[in-house]
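ENTRY TYPE: protein
WANTED: fold as tokens:
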Amino acid sequence: MSRALLSGIACASLVLACDKGAEKEPPFAPKARSQAVVAEQAEGSQQAESAPGAAQPKTAESAGEGPAAPTRQRALCAGQLDKPGQTLSSATLGRELAEGEAPLPEALPLGNGQWTWLNFWAAWCVPCREEIPRLKSWESQLNSGKKQFRLVFVSLDDDKRQLTQFLEQQPPGGLKRTYWIQEGDAREEWFAKIGMEPDPELPAHILVDPKGLARCIVNGAVEDGDFPTLKHLIGAG
């Protein structure tokens, strides 16, 4: 066999081998092309999101969780004063006070021509502690306008030591004495009289009219925005 023929056979074999190798390895895009494809996909995704009617990702504002969401102010005692008042239990409650404080009357001071705000709280309840200065400020403002208004605190603490410690640690002008309904039958009977759960979610409030009848039950902490409504309800503004 001539040298030329052998050379031609070798070249043909090399070509076939190269072709088979090319079939085994999948084609790939150059790096620059790959980056361009990614960029095009990202741009197309952004355009789709901004297109009218396209589904937009949820944000705190769109979900109603951010500052852009409108705030709904509740109407304090809405519709409740239109109903007949309810008589509260006359059972004697416990009384707790810081050292050196004047004792509370044995019975809850209700009626006698004055509106009374009963605040049910506990020393372990953070929202309760936070709203105490607000309630005391309301009492001061209303009485400065010659409107007789009483603020009465009623503790639902289960741990007397925690309650006493809280009262002792209060600053001047703070809450230093309170009525106290202990856990058990006495508490259940007291709240059953007015149709409330024996362990209400705290804080809770009852607005009592000048005749001593409960006219409004408020669940949850009060806010500064509730004060003008309270003034209107008791005829002080």
Summary: Residues 86-233 form a domain with the Glutaredoxin fold (CATH 3.40.30.10). Strands lie at 86-87, 94-97, 115-121, 149-155, 177-180, 204-208, 213-219. The first strand starts at residue 86 and ends at 87.
